[in-house]
Amino acid sequence: MFSIKVVRSWTRSFHVAVVGSGPAGFYSAKYLLDKHKELHVSIIEGLPVPFGLVRFGVAPDHPEVKSVSSQFAELFVQHSTRLRYFGNISVGGKTKNSEDSLQVSIPQLQNAFDAVVLAHGASSDNALKIPGEDLGGVLSARAFVNWYNGHPDFHDLGQTLNLSQVTDVVVVGQGNVAIDCARILTMNIKELEATDISSEALDVLRGSAVQRVTVIGRRGHVQAAFTIKELRELIHLAGVRVVIDQKELDAGLTASSAEEVKANRPRKRLVDLIHSACSANDTTTATSSTSTTSDSSEISSHSPAEKELSLRFLLSPVALESHGDSQRVSRVVVERTALSGEPFHQRVSGTGQMESLPAQLVLKSIGYRGEPIDSVPFNTSTHTIPHDKGRVLSGSDTTASPIKGLYVTGWAKRGPTGIVGTNIVDAKETVSSVLEDLSSGLLQDKGVDPEQVLPELVKDKRVVSWLDYQQIDETEVSDGARCIPSRPRQKLLTRQAMLAAIQRPQV
Ligand code: NAP
What we know:
Elements: E1 15-19, H1 23-35, E2 40-44, H2 52-56, H3 63-66, H4 68-78, E3 83-86, E4 89-91, E5 102-104, H5 106-112, E6 115-118, E7 124-125, E8 138-140, H6 141-148, H7 157-161, E9 168-172, H8 176-186, H9 189-193, H10 199-206, E10 212-216, H11 228-235, E11 240-244, H12 246-252, H13 255-262, H14 265-280, E12 307-312, E13 315-321, E14 331-340, E15 347-358, E16 361-364, E17 368-369, E18 387-388, E19 391-393, E20 402-408, H15 411-414, H16 422-439, H17 450-453, H18 456-459, H19 466-482, H20 495-500
Parallel strand pairs: 1-2, 1-6, 2-3, 4-5, 6-20, 8-16, 9-10, 9-16, 10-12, 11-12
Antiparallel strand pairs: 7-17, 13-14, 14-15, 18-19, 19-20
Helix pairs in contact: 1-16, 6-8, 8-11, 11-14
The chain binds NADP nicotinamide-adenine-dinucleotide phosphate (NAP).
């Protein structure tokens, strides 16, 4: 797939704009620069600061995942003359606070650059479409994650969260985002203090009254979307009792589920760990005759539990309700579901059996969703940009053809799935298409420098260069070092604070 070894030389540089500086954008920049020694890349980012989901999505207690940002930053050293960063530019009408950032359209970028690679991710989330979704205290997990990671557009959320009044939280959905949220809500504050979590989130979490977090999945434990590493972390949280109901595991272990476990070794390990966690906490009197082998060695003894974290299965939310006239959520009504069908194609249906779960905070963690951007085709069924090997297509039907010079990668291309590393394969495919089109002559050199066509890139004072970002970075790192206990960085939480950290020479 990534077979281009030698790329024709040009008399001048080709300029590629990469829209978005998350892992999809940075991996695209990396492979473009690595594979073509004359090509120039400009990364265009909506926020002043780079790294997208690595900074604002990855949980603060996962520094080993965040460390990939050092590799991305290193690209500016390796390719100092060919890689540029233009932060605080809203492309295609995508960013809030428009007066604080430069607005640029996709056609403007297409005029200024020889190729444009879209790597802007997925900026919205799926809706449950059940009554009560608009009540106070009902949030998307995406908003909650952005808030605790210090995203400037979610800065105000802490004021409405009111965690000092929240004892019970329900998280809907059982992907890794749901597990991240449950862990942040229950983990020891001392551990969080040593991370780069937003200082405001830290304050709100210090005053939290949360006692119980219930994470519900509409399917069974065999179909849970979280991965074993994330489950292990939950099980080993100090001061947290993980509760799993054996009866729910038994109900989920249909003949088809057993086949699914048998056919997939990683899944078997995950299911074994769920069973071990269930047994370790002795939450049920029932003994399953069908349970898979438990690896009880995975479960160590717990410190006295201060909080409870329940993983519940085969429950689908049907309504979010409040007490009386209150406009804040107080409970989640769930319906017991049952699985049926062939292995890997099992469906859930409601059984009519209802249960009410208390909750003053509900986090909807049922997947992110891509949003259209101006002047770019969009598939409203998949919420992605139609493409062929990363070449953006004019539409989603069979007659669609590639739009010259426009490419896509990451979540905007494949939907909101996969881990940071998934973007490597994805970016390689898109970069191969760009380089093939350059090599075949399909892409013509426009013969201009982007800054001549779009002088705002360097002239607009709101635009943040890589040197500017390094000042923001230094401020955050030194502020973090001064904290007690010291922190890897103390994030600046608003656009204004980020821009204020930049000292430009007077001209
Ligand atoms: P996800 O993995 O797709 O999980 C979504 C969850 O929501 C599933 O449990 C799904 O259940 C459920 N769901 C969807 N629609 C629902 C509905 N209408 N009612 C009830 N439940 C519903 O999404 P995610 O957790 O947002 O994660 C996105 C991607 O980022 C994933 O690839 C994830 O692995 C990755 N990520 C990784 C990490 C990490 O590696 N630590 C951390 C965060 C995110 P069904 O399965 O039944 O549809």
